[in-house]
Amino acid sequence: MQIDSPIVSAFATSIGSALFGIGISVPQWVDALIGVIIFAVIFSILFSIAAYVLGLVERKIIGHAQSRHGPTYVGKYGFLQNFADLIKLVSKEWFVPDNADAQIFPFILPIAAGIFVFVLAIIPLSPSFVGANAALGLLAIFVALSFMPLIFFLAGWTSGNKFGSISAQRSVVMMVSYEIPLFIVLASVVMLSGSYNMLDIVNAQSHYWFALLMPIGFFVFFVVMLAELERAPFDLREADSELIAGWLTDVSAPYYALALLVDYLRLFIGSLLIVLIFLGGWLPIILSPFLTLFIKVALVSLFIMIVRLALMRMRIDRIIRTGWMYLAPLALINLFITFILFVR
Known about the structure:
By secondary structure, the protein is mainly α.
C-alpha cells in the first residue's frame, strides 16, 4: 500500500532515519511497512471515535423523538453511556451456539470489519490523506462491498438458527437486487468525472456537485445506500414480530458489541461515500479539507438517522419491487440523461 499522506510518510521516514542514526540499516520496505502501521493506527482511532459518536447521537435523537431523554446519567449528558455499555458487553461470557459452525461463524464479523478497513484505506479523507490512491479506487471500493451479501448469508447459514438464517437470506436478496441500480449510477458518475479515481471524482465537482448535475442519480444512490447499510426502511435483519435480529439472534455479548461497531462503521462509510461521490467531498473548503468533509458526513449521517425515525420498515416484496421496478429504471434514465447532456 502506498501512503499518499505527507504527514504519515514524513513520520515513517523520520522513524527510519532515527533507526539509521543508531546504526540500524532500514530497507525501503520497512519504511513502507511503518507508514502502513501508522496509517492503520490513525484510522483505527478515527473509526472508533466516529462509531462512538454516531451511536451516542443516534440514541439521543431517538430518545428525544420518543419523548424521552436517552442516555443521561453516565458522564456529562450521558456521554460515557456507550463506553459503559461496551464494558458490560465485553465483560460477559463469549460462547458459540452448539448448532453453529464453530469453524466459520466466529470469524464472520472480523472478516467484515477487515473488508471495511480495506475500503476505508482507499477512500480519501483530504487531498493529501489517502491510504492507497488507486486508479480504479471507485471500482475497488464497491467490488469489495459487493462481498457483504455473501458474508451475511454465511453468517446466517452458519449460525445454526433457522430464523436467523431466513432473516439473513431476506437481507441478501434485498442487497443483491439493489446492487444493479447502484452500479448503473456509478457508471454515470464515471462518465461525468472521466475517472475511477476517488480524488479525480472529488476534483471534478470543483464547480458543481454531482448531486446538482444528476439529481435522479443522487436520489437513487442515496436510497440504495440505505438498503446496502440495512438502515430503515430496509432493515430486514430486524424482525420485531419474530423476536429475532437476523444472524445476530444467537450471538454472545462480545460478538454483539463487535456487530454494533461494524454497523456504525458501515453508517460512517456510507455517509462518506455519499459525500465524496455526490456532495463535493471537501469542496468548497471552508475551514480545512478534513473538517469540511466531516461536517458534511455528520450532516448526512444525521439525516439517515432522521429517516430511520420517520419511515416504517417495508415488507420484503415491496422492497424488491421498488428496487427492480423503480430504482433500476430511474438509474438507466439518469445514465441516458448524463450521456446526452454532458458526454455526447
